[in-house]
Design goal:
Its EC number is 2.7.11.1. It catalyses: L-threonyl-[protein] + ATP = O-phospho-L-threonyl-[protein] + ADP + H(+); L-seryl-[protein] + ATP = O-phospho-L-seryl-[protein] + ADP + H(+). GO terms for molecular function: ATP binding; metal ion binding; protein serine/threonine kinase activity. Helices cover 45% and strands 16% of the residues. By secondary structure, the chain is of the alpha+beta class. It has two domains: 64 residues, no CATH class; 96 residues, Transferase(Phosphotransferase), domain 1, CATH 1.10.510.10. The strands form three sheets. It has a three-stranded antiparallel beta sheet, covered by helices on one side. A three-stranded antiparallel beta sheet has the order 4-6-7, covered by helices on one side. A two-stranded antiparallel ribbon has the order 5-8. A hairpin with a 2-residue loop joins strand 6 and strand 7. It is globular. 35% of the residues are buried.
């Protein structure tokens, strides 16, 4: 079990207030509390359908959740990159089918283990109805494809992956 504290200095939260709905409150504790609530909301909704940590509880700016198994993708090298890339894409698709888009997907919030992948860090998720949903999904897919291409030479067609995720 881990405790995740949502907090940051004033400088980093200035950017958050520009990009997220903060409910009209701009003090860091309210913004951090909103981020914790959103992460809790996403984890509870997705757990059981998407490979995410199990959320136990949240209070103010803290989320209590299970530990993601494995190692952060940015800190390891995988033996079968195509298999892991396919697992990540499948989780992105399941998330999309559920009506959510991570909107900040990168090698820093994907954990890999021999059993598969788990996606963490959900406070910035958006719904598929969001005005920038297509852009954010496109960016998430591009981020993951770029990592696997750069690090392993594993290539997937960006357009086809987005179509797969959207079930088009």
């Amino acid at each position: 079990m881990i405790l995740k504290f949502h907090r940051a200095g004033q400088t980093s939260f200035k950017q958050v207030t520009r990009q997220r709905d903060t409910g009209g409150r701009d003090h860091w504790i309210f913004i951090a509390g909103r981020a914790a609530w959103r992460e809790h909301e996403a984890l509870v909704a997705l757990h059981g359908s998407v490979a995410v940590p199990r959320c136990i509880d949240h209070n103010r700016h803290v989320v209590v959740m299970s530990v993601a198994p494995g190692i952060e993708l940015s800190k390891t090298t995988v033996d079968d990159p195509g298999w892991f890339l396919d697992r990540i894409i499948e989780q992105v698709r399941k998330t999309y089918e559920f009506g959510f888009i991570h909107s900040d997907l990168s090698e820093y919030n994907v954990f890999v283990s021999p059993d598969g992948v788990e996606i963490i860090d959900w406070p910035g998720y958006v719904t598929t109805k969001h005005l920038q949903a297509d852009y954010l999904l496109d960016r998430d897919v591009k981020n993951i494809l770029t990592i696997f291409n750069r690090k392993y030479g594993t290539v997937r067609d960006h357009k086809k992956v987005v179509e797969y995720v959207k079930n088009e």
